[in-house]
Recover the amino acids of this structure.
């Protein structure tokens, strides 16, 4: 997909932003719905997980801080 876009235009003058803008919609469309749903579940799990307070330090088995 990227090679095709590079060959279509003047690849010497295309910026990364322009290249990304042209390929992202097609790349997103290629991701199967099953994969999207699985990723959304994983993101939701992370966002809903409790967050440790900044001062909470975990200790490993020898008493050192992780």
């Amino acid at each position: 997909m990227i090679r095709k876009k590079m060959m279509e235009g003047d690849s010497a003058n295309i910026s990364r932003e322009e290249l990304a803008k042209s390929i992202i919609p097609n790349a997103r469309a290629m991701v199967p719905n099953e994969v999207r749903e699985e990723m959304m579940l994983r993101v939701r799990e992370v966002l809903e997980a409790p967050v440790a307070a900044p001062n909470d330090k975990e200790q490993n088995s020898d008493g050192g801080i992780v």
In short: The helical segments are 2-8, 16-30, 33-48. The chain has a mean pLDDT of 81.
